[in-house]
Amino acid sequence: xxxxxxxxxxxxxxxxxxxxxxxxxxxxxxxxxxxxxxxxxxxxxxxxxxxxxxxxxxxxxxxxxxxxxxxxxxxxxxxxxxxxx
Length: 85
Prior knowledge:
By secondary structure, this protein is mostly beta strands. The protein has one helix spanning 78-84; strands spanning 6-8, 17-19, 22-24, 35-43, 51-55. The chain contains one helix and five strands; from the N terminus they run E-E-E-E-E-H.
């Protein structure tokens, strides 16, 4: 995910659990199933190669991991779409 991307927060997240080494607070449950925009992206200090994302819904208060968002759908350009058919 990149800054400016629209994301949807997974509905099956459970407060008090850890997702990709990022704590999901019960307060964050209010955002489940909602669409958000990524405001910032920074490397995780705990897990190399993973990121901590800030979103607009909570005004950047919480750190969100990639696994807290629904998977991004692959966007095909016109040439890729023709090749797939």
